[in-house]
Amino acid sequence: MSHSIPKQGDPAHPYRTHTCGVLRLKHENQNVTLSGWVHRKRDHGQLIFIDLRDHFGITQIVFHFDRNRENFHIAQEVRVESVLTVKGMAMRRSDETVNPTLPTGEVEVWVEFVQVESAAQQVPFSIADEEKTNEELRLIWRFLDLRREHLHQNIVYRDKVIRYIRDYMHRRGFLEIQTPILANSSPEGARDFLVPSRLNPGTFYALPQAPQQFKQLLMVSGFDRYFQIAPCFRDEDARADRSPGEFYQLDLEMSFCTQEDVFDVVEGLFTDMTPAISEKKIQESPFPRFTYREVMDRYGSDKPDIRFDLEIQDVSDIFRECQLNIFAKTVQSGGAIKAIRFPGGVKESRSWYDGMEDFARSKGAKGLAYLLFRGDRIDGPIAKFLSDKEREGLIERLGVKTGDSVFFSAGKWSETCALMGEVRTRLGKHLDLLKGKENTLAFCWIVDFPMFEYNEEEKKIDFSHNPFSMPQGGLEALETKDPLDILAFQYDIVCNGIELSSGAIRNHRPDIMYKAFSIAGYSKEEVDAKFGHMIRAFSYGAPPHGGIAPGVDRIVMIYADENNLREITAFPKNQRAQDLCSGAPSAVSQRQLDELYIQLNLPKEE
């Protein structure tokens, strides 16, 4: 079960000569000592069978009434999940009682001595049967939940993944360096977790949202390649793929590197690790690359699931002179019309299409147009507005076949892409296009993100992704190009529709940094106030550098086939950022508050 087991066979050891997963026929007639938890118990009158479980497996132990009545009575009284130490002889099971589902199923231990190391109370849910249990109950009793086989093995598997990552990074010449947990507050990003300083009253540390600034300072310090399995802390709401409060990432940074160097390291990790730790297969290697513009056009998302081929098409040019005013005006005003072919869609009912329109409205759209291609005719709410030329153009562009239908959306490019991305995902599930691809890992890179975007609300230019990325074209691009046309050396790695990480080649020059921030409306004084220590470091010889930080929790979730990070985390928090097992967060004493010069100003109860 585990990758490492204790030393076996020491007869003087008080608790075990063997673990509960190791006994085989070769141990027949040997005296053994085992310790573990009572997994199951079966009383057959003159015989009591107990499945004894430890971290390594299960062994059946047998109590005979006629051999030792005192031991037999202890076995009668003991509850499941109590901890026992037993001594006895390993015996071959009869042919009819062999359990082929257990590695130890050909032997059993006839107990000659038993000691209850720790008696268990009645457990709140079954450990052995793993029936569905309320999640809150599982989190309250997490130390019991972790005894269950599936969750227990997920935590073992998490260690396997992290161990492989560490070994790989060291093989690639990276140094593991720990960065501070008590750090400075970040003016950007999510809310910080603040830690008051007793020795410096009125000041606060912040738990790092990421080691971003420290790892860049390490590059300035002359270290060539850094990595860390880094804990990160963000005071944000819970999501299925991120714990509220804390998560872990493979944080890495490289000096004198290009975007290609980063890709080489990360692709190498997943390419090497996948066959070593799983039965999964990588769909395509090298990983395909899409520009941000391309991936939005084709998939409607910058984190596409490319395991299925249902792609979005731009049909704006076909409808430039369309009689349907909303389509024609959209194109003429610079918007986009996107279409997606639904193979075999004609067979669906009218109510199903009404449901798709409702779905589009739930995503903020005004509606969702569609056409049904029946061969002899074309039906649908917009069919009467189309000319023969437009119909023929659609059939050719989309590869439409008799029996297919086509969905359309019109509007601003970004909004239309996003809606059709949602439609694509919904159609993919409806058509069961992922069937048979459960063990496929479809990695891809998204590159060439825009450096800036226009903030409609505030009527200003903002950073669109990461303000500390190097703009493509450097200072010259910032000084001569329309800001909305400037691309950045920013990239994401995506797997099966899940973003594993964003990364970038960093802006290591103060002059370029000041110019980039000025475009976004920041003065030199504001940049110095917020990021002065970084500017100072970059003013003393900073190498070109870049990196990325794939999320460890998300990596383990994908490889373990789990949809919720609480299934791959030992002590997770609930949706309200509470640790129900330990009771965190909790109130503290007035004395502790006084030491920190803190007064509470709690909201009034309604």
Description:
It contains 16 helices and 24 strands. A hairpin with a 3-residue loop joins strand 1 (31-43) and strand 2. The strands form six sheets. It has an eight-stranded mixed β-sheet with strand order 6-9-10-24-23-22-19-12, sandwiched between helices. The chain has a five-stranded mixed barrel with strand order 1-2-3-5-4. Helix 4 (149-171) crosses helix 15 and helix 13 (510-519) runs antiparallel to helix 14. By secondary structure, the chain is α+β, with helices and mostly antiparallel strands. 29% of the residues lie in helices and 24% in strands. It has helices at residues 69-77, 135-140, 142-145, 149-171, 212-220, 259-277, 292-299, 325-332, 350-362, 388-398, 413-430, 474-480, 510-519, 524-538, 552-560, 590-595; strands spanning 31-43, 47-54, 57-64, 83-92, 107-118, 175-176, 193-196, 204-207, 225-234, 245-255, 281-282, 289-291, 312-314, 336-342, 369-373, 378-379, 405-411, 440-441, 443-447, 452-455, 460-463, 490-495, 498-505, 545-548. The mean pLDDT is 94.
